[in-house]
Amino acid sequence: MLTSLKAGNTELLTDNFFLLAGPCVVESEEVCFTVASHMKELCARLNIPYVFKASYRKANRSRLDSFTGIGDEAALKIIKKVCTELDLPSVTDIHESDEADMAAAYVDVLQIPAFLCRQTDLLVAAAKTGKVVNIKKGQFLSPEAMKFATDKVKESGNNHIALTERGTMLGYTDLVVDYRGIPTMQKLGYPVILDITHSLQQPNQSSGVTGGLPQLIETIAKAGIATGANGIFMETHPDPKNAKSDGANMLPLAQTEALLSKLVAIRKTINTF
């Protein structure tokens, strides 16, 4: 296992878990500042290394009329402004190989969406930026198969890698988390993150809008920390019901303190053994 992983100037691998959290997509500067400010203060109190998360564009949408973003450059500039003013590292998704250099100019971690984790050109382009590359495990892949995704990044000259578990498809409209995948992927030598919100998505709804089970976020998160996940990924919003993307499975911002406090207590207990 890597003993050091930094996002910007923030050391992520400490005795505590680290956190990637923020809104699904950049909706406005106000929402981003609200979430980032709240999470920075909370994580500082709980001694959790924090990385602000926001997608500058959502390329994987069910319907053509779904909200995808406010424009790539405009959104990336907001992420950069928020994180510069608050002194935070940042993470965002990229979808095509020609987006890697563009996004790398604004953020510290490039995230590869689960559906794209086998895309060789995308992984190589992300690797060559020198940024940390967080690869989400495809809903269709075994934990063992992620070796080939990490090899593509490593063999392209970049060993700053993290892997994210975000559930496996069960039928057409549900996901399950196989917690055996966390230690399995850790054996590849990289930190493993558990996505506690996308793991509770209910895709392929007849409405064309993905559903979710946010009432189980705490359950998924507790189990992940108990299993030994190095990091937690979650999407949070001041008002999920009115969020422009993935509101059905986001954690309300007001509930983040209660959840993270419990997870810190579990990690402290685990660390005593």
Question: How is this structure best described in words?
Answer:
The chain is α/β, with parallel strands linked by helices. It has a single domain, classed as Aldolase class I (TIM Barrel, Alpha-Beta Barrel). The chain has eight helices and 15 strands. It has helices at 29-46, 72-86, 100-104, 120-128, 146-154, 181-186, 217-227, 256-271, and strands spanning 6-7, 10-11, 18-22, 50-53, 90-93, 109-112, 132-136, 161-165, 168-169, 175-176, 192-195, 201-202, 211-212, 231-237, 251-252. The strands form four sheets. An eight-stranded parallel beta barrel has the order 3-4-5-6-7-8-11-14, surrounded by five helices. It has a two-stranded antiparallel sheet with strand order 1-2. Helix 3 (100-104) links the parallel strand 5 and strand 6. Helix 7 runs parallel beside helix 8 (256-271). The longest helix has 18 residues, at 29-46. It is globular, with a radius of gyration of 17 Å. The mean pLDDT is 93.
Number of domains: 1
Whole-angstrom Rg: 17 Å
Number of helices: 8
Do you know the CATH topology? TIM Barrel
Shape designation: globular
Number of strands: 15
Note the beta-strand portion: 15-25%
Order of helices and strands: EEEHEHEHEHEHEEEHEEEHEEH
Read across the widest sheet, the strand sequence of neighbours is 3-4-5-6-7-8-11-14
Query: Pairing-aware structural class of the strands and helices?
Result: alpha/beta
Mean pLDDT: 93
Helix content: 25-40%
CATH architecture label: Alpha-Beta Barrel
Characterize the largest beta sheet: strand count, sense, and whether it forms a barrel.
8 strands, parallel, barrel
- Could you name the CATH homologous superfamily? Aldolase class I
Low-confidence stretches: none
Tell me the name of the CATH class: Alpha Beta
Distance from N terminus to C terminus (CA atoms, Å) equals 19 Å
